[in-house]
């Protein structure tokens, strides 16, 4: 036993060949027990915080990549700070985790993770719960550093953004800051509604934790909820008017609504005329031959079908919609320069 525990070497030397073999066997058994104990203890310690271990491994890979590409020191510092802010020392492969869940359970998890965003955005608080759920399940988490240009004026927009934490500035072409947006606001929806280019630039003033919604998902959701589409269109017009860009969006929408009303009225009038003709035909069937009346009725219905075929209900010129939030008073001298997120650690694609 003393040999197995490595505490009795030399005290009782072997006297025969059998003693030598037994001593060697006990020493090997002791070394094996020590190795097994250390290995299990190491695995246990690592398993207690696997996400932090994965984060360290990922950071090490990034450092090796930056050294291989010989990136400048300033860029390396920005990349390091980005990882520290985004992942907070823990790394999860959320795409794999959520992909293994059932559709209903995955939706519940995403809704729970985004509960702080839904609570801070008034547009979500006043919207239909099904609409909110459809939007939230299609959001993608993104992080921007101070000074990053999130949206550049004149470019074609492919996303809109919801601010979970942080402050962004709306910058005009002349460099003037038109307004600032903070937690609970959203931006970037105007070009999705008007199918036009970005009307202003958006710059991150602090670390910003945002959720983005792509134009494809934007259109799919709003096609299912036309009332939210109209609401977002009206708010978009107000924002455009506020920054002095394309203030005729509302009038365009009113013209579209007027055109729709005229078309519907034309259909109703056509139906009424055909109904009167049918009634007249029924009254005359007692005095005229039934074959002639039936032939006349069939001809009238055929003309009605041709009329309805020619009538195409127009869609609004603005294909998408969005809502806005009034700017909250802020004191720029007391803005927090660092925000932490407890919602998502990783999106579908590692950046």
Q: Sheet with the most strands?
A: 4 strands, antiparallel
Remind me, CATH topology of the domain at 94-248 and 320-334? Jelly Rolls
Structural class of the helix and strand makeup?
alpha+beta
Poorly predicted ranges (pLDDT <50, ≥5 residues)?
A: 249-257, 308-351
Strand numbers in spatial order across the main sheet: 1-8-3-6
Helix content: 40-55%
Overall mean pLDDT stands at 75
Distance between the termini: 56 Å
Q: How many β-strands, per DSSP?
A: 8
Description of the molecule:
With 351 residues, the protein is an alpha+beta fold. Among the domains are: 50-87; 94-248 and 320-334, Jelly Rolls, CATH 2.60.120.10. Helix content is 54%, strand content 11%. The chain is built from 13 helices and eight strands. The chain has helices at 17-47, 50-69, 73-87, 94-99, 103-113, 115-120, 122-125, 129-136, 190-194, 215-224, 226-242, 249-284, 290-310; strands at residues 140-144, 149-151, 159-165, 168-171, 177-181, 186-187, 201-204, 208-214. The strands form two sheets. A four-stranded antiparallel β-sheet has the order 1-8-3-6. A four-stranded antiparallel β-sheet has the order 2-7-4-5, with no helix packed on it. A hairpin with a 5-residue loop joins strand 4 (168-171) and strand 5. Helix 2 packs antiparallel against helix 3 (73-87). The two termini are 56 Å apart.
